[in-house]
Amino acid sequence: MKINQIFLLLLFATNSFSQNFISTGQIDYEMMIYSGISYDNYTASLLFNDSFSRFNYRSKDIGDVVTENKVSNNNTSINIRKSDTTNYAIFNDLKKSALYALGGNEVIFENETKQEWELVNEEKKIGNLFCFKATCDFRGRSYTAWYATSIPIPLGPWKFKGLPGLIIELSDSKNEVIFSVKKIEIPFQSEVNGIDLKYKLISREEAKIITSAQLIKQKAKMEERAKILESKVSKGERLKINVSTPILKRGIELD
């Protein structure tokens, strides 16, 4: 019986995230993530209909970022930030409350992913939209969202949804994660692909283990390169190279 239950769960998951759909709207977002040194900018868009949504995002950076700081006459500090070249996607089966996150070679399956929003009696105007405030704590961060009830679509960027209107702006309390609407197209009809079945389906718990191992391997490789560069400086000079990784690799989610 247990084997049958597992099989049915995997079948349900596969059928959901491989589902293509015709969108009825598209929302383009500005997306910024603080990397520890500077902000990474992402191209992001939400395509949706009544049953499904897909949020795509990828970094605008095309190469590693190197920052050089002269500490003193004979000391220079160089920071190397590895660029994020992954194409990310968040696929929501809205009827079945199932979410699938694509990043790299795996698809992470989550069931019943939602935020516990607190609606706040506060409003502001963003562009020509009157927006209302909502707050929530979600996976290690405290967020503030501004949503427009004049656009009664309970969706937003990334994994955020469930408000009585489209999320126009959203940021965490430290301003490390920031989303803001750039363009709204409703109606917007387009065929949207589900997530390719070639990707491996894993749980969020499995993904944490895989990500941690990848981070350790990636950082070790970068530190090895840094040591080679440090050894090549002229005699009498000192070079210290610090290696950091993008916050998206560590996770927007902190727990």
From TrEMBL:
Source domain of life: Bacteria
Give the matching InterPro entries: GLPGLI (IPR005901)
Q: Specify one Pfam family.
A: Porph_ging
Q: Where is the signal peptide?
A: 1-18
The record's keywords, sorted A to Z, are: Coiled coil, Signal
Coiled-coil regions in this chain?
212-239
- The protein in question is named GLPGLI family protein
Species of origin: Flavobacterium limicola
